[in-house]
Amino acid sequence: MTSTTGSAGPGDETAPGDDAVAKPRFDHARAEAAIRELLCAAGEDPDREGLQETPARVARAYQELFAGLYTDPDEVLNRTFGESHEELVLVRDIPVYSQCEHHLLPFHGMAHVGYIPNEHGRVTGLSKIARLVDLYAKRPQVQERLTSQIADALARKLDPRGVIVVVDAEHLCMGMRGVRKAGSTTTTSAVRGIFRSSSSSRSEALSLIRDGR
Ligand SMILES: Nc1nc2c(ncn2[C@@H]2O[C@H](COP(=O)(O)OP(=O)(O)OP(=O)(O)O)[C@@H](O)[C@H]2O)c(=O)[nH]1
Ligand SMILES: [Zn+2]
């Protein structure tokens, strides 16, 4: 099994029993110590009653929020099946919760993912598309990279005629701090194949994404 993240990344250790390829995993003890240290740095007392279990809780939360670092995207898309459908398949309004890699604050919104299968009609289960979005969202991210990683994984595994991905999201680092523009949203798109070369295919998909018709 190959790792998705190469050699760099948090918890960069070999999982027990996997001596063939170094597979990164979340280092819970290290994360817990770091959260305790952060509380100290903020002038808090990590031993006061309300905070005693916080480092362990936050470490568990981050293990979940960064779970996408430890899953191979190719595994998610390994199960495909033949279905003679050579028109658009579009999954709209997939909820996205990610963390901006600059501030480790959430950005959240919706992803819309469409593709046109190739002439062999290889399609994937609809849930696998939502799993793919989750996998790339659950890691320190920027919205542009999230969008293109989803498109590239689908292009690589399904060899479709085209892929279109649109993500609309609000970044809390722009709302609750810094420039404080709560409610502003960012839209990113990535198009591959026919959606790049044909403006009419792209417009049709975009209007389905926006209006459902
Ligand atoms: N392009 C892009 N920028 C992002 C994303 N998430 C956060 N940012 C931006 O990353 C930038 C980081 O800017 P810096 O100047 O290094 O950090 P900063 O001083 O905290 O910036 P401010 O947020 O402006 O206070 C900010 O402009 C954020 O709005 C993202 O997904 N894509
Ligand atoms: Zn940010």
UniProtKB/TrEMBL annotation:
Its EC number is 3.5.4.16. GO terms for cellular component: cytoplasm. The keyword Nucleotide-binding applies. It catalyses: GTP + H2O = 7,8-dihydroneopterin 3'-triphosphate + formate + H(+). InterPro entries: GTP-CH-I_C/QueF, GTP-CH-I_N, GTP_CycHdrlase_I, GTP_CycHdrlase_I_CS, GTP_CycHdrlase_I_dom. One of its GO terms (biological process) is one-carbon metabolic process. Residues 1-26 are annotated as: Disordered. Keywords: GTP-binding, Hydrolase, Metal-binding, Nucleotide-binding, One-carbon metabolism, Zinc. Zn(2+) binds at residues 100, 103, 173. Residues 32-210 form the GTP cyclohydrolase I domain. The keyword Hydrolase applies. Pathway: Cofactor biosynthesis; 7,8-dihydroneopterin triphosphate biosynthesis; 7,8-dihydroneopterin triphosphate from GTP: step 1/1. GO terms for molecular function: GTP binding; GTP cyclohydrolase I activity; zinc ion binding. Homopolymer. Belongs to the GTP cyclohydrolase I family. This is GTP cyclohydrolase 1. The gene is folE.
